[in-house]
Amino acid sequence: MVLADRVCKSFGTTQVLKGISLEVERGEVLCIIGPSGSGKSTFLRCVNHLEEVNAGRLYVDGDLIGYRERGGKLYEMSPKDAAKQRRDIGMVFQHFNLFPHRTVIENVIEAPTQVKRKNKAEATSRAEYLLERVGLADKAQSYPSQLSGGQQQRVAIARALAMEPKLMLFDEPTSALDPELVGDVLGVMRELAASGMTMLVVTHEMGFAREVADQLVFMDGGVVVEQGDPREVLANPQHERTKTFLSKLL
Ligand code: ADP
Ligand code: MG
Question: To 5 degrees, how large is the angle CA 157–CA 161–CA 162?
Answer without folding.
Answer: 115
